[in-house]
Amino acid sequence: MKLKKLYKNTQIFKIALGIAIVVVGYIASVFYTQMRGLDSSVDLITNSTETQLELEKILSTISMYESNLRGYIITKDESYIKNRFLRRGEIDQNILKIKELVASNPNRVKDIERLNKLIDHRFDLFRETLLLSKSKYFDSVIFNKKLQESNSFTESMKTFVYKTINAEGDKIKVHNVNHQFELEDSIISAFLLVILTLLILLLSFNKTNVDVVELKKANDEMKFLNLSFTNAEKIAGFGHWKINIETGLYTFSDNFYRLLGEEPNAFEPKLENLNKYIHRDDLENVIQSHKDSLISYEPTSLTFRFVLTNGEIKYIKSVGSFTQNSKGEMIKTGVNHDITEQYVKTLKLEESNTELKSINEELESFNNIVSHDLQEPLHKIQMFISRIGDNDKETISEQGKTYLSKIGISANKMQALLIDLVNYSRTIKGDKVFEEVNLNDIVNVVIDDLSSSIDDKKAVIEVGSLPTIKGISFQIDQLFVNLITNSLKYSKDTIAPQINIYIEDIGIDEFYNDKLILDSDYHKIVIRDNGIGFKQEYADKIFMLFQRLETSPKYSGTGLGLAICKKIVDNHHGYITVQSEPNIGTTFYVFMPKEI
Amino acid sequence: MISHNDSMHILIADDDEDDRTFFSEAMMELKMNNKLTLFNDGKDLMDYLANPDIIMPHILFLDLNMPYMSGFECLKGIRADVRFKDVSIAIYSTSSSEKDIEETFVEGANIYIKKPNDFTKLKKVIKEVVNINWQFHSSGLNKETFFFSI
Asked: 4-aspartylphosphate-modified residues are where (chain B) (predicted)?
C-alpha cells in the first residue's frame, strides 16, 4: 500500500529519476575514462612493439653489413661492398622513428642516444676493418685484433639492444595485465550502465503510462464536469466570465451569451461589446465599478439590467472576485445570475406585503370600531333598558316587560358577540410575542376572573400541576377562559359541574391528522368536564367559526369561542382535539410544543 | 385627609350627554352629599382646572374617547401638574382594551372603570369608588387591582 502510494507520487518519482540520471552520468564518465585508459594502453603496446621492431631492424642491418664485410674479406669480391654497404640513411631513419616513439620516455631517449653513438662507433670499426683488409701492408695480427674488437663490440651492442627490447617487452607485459583488468572493469561498467539505463527506461515508461492513463481519466472527468457545468449554467440561469488582468483578455461562457439572448460566441468577448446590452441607467455604474475593482482587486457584487435585442429586460446579479492563475497572473472571475424571476417575485411579494399591511390596518380599525364605537350605542341601549325596568316597572304591561327582557337578552348577546369578535381578530393579528408562560399561574388568574360564574354554577375546578410553555400570554389566557366558560355553559342542571385540568403522558400511537405526536415534542393538556356532551361525529364541527351544536336559548353562545381556541392553538403550532359523549361529558386535549 | 362625612368635590368629563345624565342621576339617587361638576369634553375640563381659584377636586372621572382633547391627554396634563397630586383619577370608559388599561395605568390613573351596562351596577360602582380608602388603594396599587371589577 505504502509502496503503491510512493509510486503514485510523481514528485518522488522525479527525484528518483534525477538521482538515476546522476548515477548514469557518473558511470558513463567512469566508463569513458576507462575507455580512454584502454586506448592509451593500446597505444603504449603498439609503441613498444614498433620500438622493438625498429631496434631489430637496426640490428639486422648491422648484421647484414657484418656478413657483407666478411664475404668481402674472404672473397675479396668487390660486389659485397659495392651495393648498399655502410649506408647510414636507413639506420638514421630507424633511429628517428624510434626517437619519435620513445619521446615520452626520457630514459629510453638516453638509451637511443647511446645506441646512436654505439652505431657510430661500429661504423668506425667497419671502416677501419675494411681499410685494414684493403691495406697493402696487411698485418694479420692487427687485422685479427680489429675483427675481434668488432665482434665483441657487436655483441655488446646486441646485448644493449636486446636489453632495450626486453625492457620494452616487460613494459608491454605490464601493460597487457593492466589492459586485461581495465577491460574487465569496463565490461562491468558497460553492463551496469546498460542494465541501469534499461531499468530507468522501463520505470519511466511505466510511470508515463500510468500518468497518461490517469491524465486521460482526469481529462475525461474534466470534460464531463465541463459539460455538467455548461448544463448547470443553462438550467440555473448562470453565465460566467473572466478577465486576465495581465493580458486584458476576456472570456465569456456559452451561457453568458445566452443570457444576453445571443448564440454562444456571437461576438468577441470584450467589455465594450457589452455596452449595448446593459440598461442605459445602469451602464455607467456597472462599468465604473468593474474598472475600479481591476485596480483595487476588491470583489464586486452588482445588480443591474440587461436589455436584450428583442427589448426584454433581464435582472442580473453579477459577482466577481480575484484569483491568480498557474502563471501567477491576476484573474478576475465572475458569475452573472439571472434573477429576473426572483426580482419579479420579490416585487410581487412586496406588493402583497403592502396590501397585507393595509388589510391589517383595516382590521385594526375594524377592531376599534367593534370594541369601542359599536359597544357605545349598545351600552346606551342596555342602560336605557335598565332605566325603564327600574323606573317604569309598574306602568309597563306584562307583554311589554317580556319584550323588554327579550331586548335585554338580545343586547347582551350582541355584546358577547362583539367581545368574541374582537378576541378572534386579536388572535389573527401579527404582533405575537412568545414568552415563558406558567400555565398554573394563567389558569389560577382565569378561575379568579370567572369566579362569579363558577360560584353561580357551584362548579368545582381541580387543577393539577401544569408545565411552563412558550406562548403568547394573553392568548393562552383567552384559551383557558373560553374552554372553562364552555364547560360551565354546557353543564347539566342536575349535578354541579366538575372540571379537571391536568397533563397526561402522550401514548405511543397518538395521531393528529395522520401526524404522529411524540411525548418528547408536546405537552398534552386535558380539560375534562361532566357536562351535557355531544355526539362524537360533531367533534370537528365545533371548532369551526359560527358553528353551534346547541340552539336552545338556554345555552347562549356566539359560535366563536372554540374557533378562537383553535386559532390560538394553531398560533402556538399545537393541536386541539375533543372527545365527547352525550350526557357523560366532554374532554378537550390541547397539545402544545415543548420547544419552539 | 378627606373623611367620608365631608362633602367631596367630584368631577366628570364625558362627551356623551346620556352618560353624564346617567352619572348625575345615579349620584342623586345615592343621595350622597357631594358636589358634582360635569364637563362636556377634555378641553372644558382642562380650562376649568387651569383656574387657580377652584375648589380642589377629590375624584375625577375621566372618559377616554373625547373630541378636542382625549382623556388620555388630560390624564398626562393633570399628572404633570403638582397642584393635582392628591386628586384621584378614575378612568371611565366603554373600552376595556388591554392597551388602554396599560397605558392609563402607566400614566398614573388610580383606577380603571368599564362603564356598566346596568343602572343598578352604575350606582354600585359610584358608591364603592367614592368610598374607597384612596390612600390604602394607591399604596397597594398594581395592575391587577387597577381594573375595577364589580
From this structure: 63
Judged by CB atoms closer than 8 Å, whether chains meet at A379 and B117 is answered as yes
Rounded mean pLDDT of A310-314?
89
**How many other β-carbons are positioned within 10 Å of the β-carbon of residue A258?**
17
Q: A498, A523, A493: which is closest to A510 by C-alpha?
A: A523
Residue pointed to by grid coordinates 453579477: A318
- Give how far A459 is from chain B: nearest CA, Å: 21
Summary mean pLDDT of chain A: 84
- pLDDT band at residue B1 under the 50/70/90 scheme: very low
Of B118, B123, B126, B144, which to mutate for an interface test with A (greatest number of A Cβ within 10 Å)? B118
User: Is the ipTM here above 0.90?
Assistant: no
Residue B79: inside a domain, yes or no? yes
A268 at interface of B, judged by CB pairs closer than 8 A:
no
A460 phi/psi in degrees, rounded to 5: -115, 125
| Residue B114, domain extent | 9-146
CATH number of the domain encompassing residue B135: 3.40.50.2300
Number of domains in chain B: 1
Residue whose C-alpha cell reads 405511543 in the numeric block:
A508
Q: Does residue B122 contact residue A387 with C-beta atoms inside 8 Å?
A: no
Number of other residues whose CB lies within 10 A of the CB of residue A413? 14
* Reported pTM: 0.49
**A376 in contact with B, Cβ within 8 Å:** yes
pLDDT band at B77 (very low <50, low <70, confident <90, very high): very high
